[in-house]
Amino acid sequence: MIGYCQFTVYGLRGTVLSTTALVVRTDRDRFVALAFCWADLLFEVDPQMKIAFAAGPTEAFFRKSTRQLAGTSFEELLAPPARRGLGQALARAVRHGRFDNETVVIGRPGGGTLAMSVSGYWLHGPGSNLYLGMRRAAPEAGGPAYRTQSGLPDARTFSGLAAERIKSLQKVGTQTEITLLVLAELEQLYERLDDASRIRLRRKVTAALKAGSLDGEAVAEVADGRYSVLRQARSGIDSLAAQLEDITRSIDPFGAGVTVDTTSIGMEPAMAVSQKHLAKGLLYAMNRFRDTRGKDFNIGSLSANIGELCRTAVKEVSGFRQLLAGAEFDLAVQPIVDVHSGEILHYEALCRFRNVPAMESPYGTISFAEETEMIHDFDLAMVEKTLTWLAAPAANSRRLSVAVNISGHSIGIPAFAAALQRMLTENAWSRGRLVFEITESARIRDLTSANCFVQALRQNGHLVALDDFGAGAASFQYLSSIEVDLVKLDGTALRHAEQAPKGRAFLSALTELCKRLNVKTIAEMVDTPERLKFCRDCGCNYVQGYLFGRPAPDVKSFAPLPSAHLFRARHWGDGGSWF
Fold it and tell me: Which of 549, 497, 544 is nearest to 525 (CA)?
């Protein structure tokens, strides 16, 4: 631990002038001292995960002093979903001596969570403890390190990790490559196994992939049966593929196993881009690898394509950054109207990129922003543009209200929430006039934090809508966990309900549920008088669609409202039906 050496100073005749005890620090103390250069918080934990020592501003993070934390469980500081991932990281530390930059989530006193980056070092030997350094995760990371059912990082987490490894190793002249592996018929093999065998297979495959990766960490499960592994260039992949095939054969009751197809992409030094842009380009490429399906899929041809995708994505990331910096987009608005009276509730602000043809949807550009996790930057730019539009004399003279979209991905980023709050504080006049629509296109992972984000907006006087409702399986989970003012029914789901025999009953039940929750409903893609009547009959409160005009830059396009004659009451029949 700490050794003491006594130094004695003697005079000319042997007289003792002074005696000094100096502290000689051992390796452990040097590691702790170096950790202070990186971490906000330091912990020493024993093999049972009890905190033996803590240092740093623990009160700010946990409302407990370092003395109060001593003897408590380190795992209790983490949000439950993060405990499993950290346990796996600790196991790697025991095997390899260390782990680096594992992103976890801590629970905040009074509610909410915070993403933290943790690194650890294990000093081998009798009675050795684990030393952990913890600091706030970079806002650009977009939140915690998410893992799949196998315990491996997902594509987003892998992309950030791989980019950091690639850039750091390039500096010392070590070249790397990313190997893509497809375990064909893996899903069919799982169907032939019992629960215990499935677990054993998943564990063995995961262990083999980690062992074959750089540092035993740089591997991801991109989709079922699809994996990405960062390796040293030209280190050979055949042995790993053969090992995986042997594992599947040994567990398969039929002895068939699966075939493993592989291809590798060199991360050449010519890719002279920033680590941030490389990570986003890799993420885009991994998503393409994930989504490539069908009988025409061939991993050999995918190698060149995905390498080019990565390089193209990196260029497009830079171009998108420039687009945002120059605010190279405009707004078009579309009214949301009362289903009975035709009165305009508010308008929705829609983006129109200047380099995209007027009749072409901006969906592709926005999808790219989501897949490369730059959507939060776009969302902030869109809010700023909408505030400018609202503050203009034409909008102010009418006291118009406008809704702006926020991606489900953005609300999980602390830096986005803080920047949005600053923007709204500086524009307090927008209360009651700026509405927010939370889109489901990017799945919301932390519903508790999402609800905190939404309630902060509502408490500041902003209505909040849940967009794309009915488009995904998570819609009802969102509605039960997040308190909102409005629900926007997905247009495609509405069309299916209109055509299905039981569609009217289903939609009516949905609007009744929202009514009981004190939530108003908006039906999208209402393009015909027949669909307007269908929405009325099913109990929708508001409608939006081409029937009331295409998106336009000027609200004068909706005065008078197109199809206004459809809202003129002619006669009330029995039961209040609208004719």
Answer: 544
